[in-house]
Amino acid sequence: MEYRFAKDGNFEDFASGRVIYHMGGTPAFPVRLALEIFERCLQHSVKKTGIILYDCCCGGAYMLTVLGFLKNDAISCVYASDIDDKCLKLADDNLSLLTQSGLKRRREEITALYESYGKSSHYDALQSLSRIENLLKNNIKTHVFYHNILEDKDLTFNPDIVITDVPYGLMTEWNASVHPENESTDFINQMMASLSKTCSKDTIICICSDKKQKIKADGFKRLEKQLIGKRKFEIFKIMSFENM
Question: What is the pTM of this model?
Answer without folding.
Answer: 0.93
